Each structure stands twice: as structure tokens, then as C-alpha cells.
Amino acid sequence: MDEKLYKKIKSIGAGNIVFGIISVVCGVTTGVLLIVNGARLLAHKSDTLF
Fold first, then answer.
1. pTM of the model
2. Which tens digits make up the pLDDT trace of 8-17?
3. 15-50: string of b/e by CB count within 10 Å (b at 16+)?
4. Which whole-number Å values give the CA distances from 1 to 6, 13, 19, 36, in the listed order?
5. What angle do CA 29, 45, 35 make, to 5 degrees?
6. Whole-number pLDDT of residue 14
7. What distances in angstroms separate CA 50 from CA 39, 43, 45, one per listed residue?
């Protein structure tokens, strides 16, 4: 009984680590894209017509 529980906890922990890594990578990618797009908007600020 204890061995089954240990295996379940181990697989759940590994899944959580993988999900955490994927979340961090997605967050960093999104942040970089937002910074790049913001810089492009600032660079072309004089072209805007309001």
C-alpha cells in the first residue's frame, strides 16, 4: 500500500515540476514579446495620427 502511494506522489511531483517549468518558459516568452512590441510602438511614435 505504501509503495503505491509513494509512486503516485512521485509522479504527481514530477508533473508539477514539468508544469512549473513550462509556465516559467511561457511567462518569459510573453514578457519578451511584450517588451519588443512596446519598443516598436515607441520607436514609431512619431508616425501615429490621432
1. 0.70
2. 888 999 999 9
3. eeeeeeeeeeeeeeeeeeeeeeeeeeeeeeeeeeee
4. 9, 19, 27, 53
5. 10
6. 93
7. 19, 17, 11
Q: Residue 1 pLDDT > 70, yes or no?
A: no
| Cell numbers describing residue 48 | 501615429
Amino acid (1-letter code) at residue 24: V
Residue with grid cell 495620427, as numbered in its chain: 49
Place of cell 514609431: 44
Rounded-to-10 torsion of CA 33, 35, 39, 45 = 90
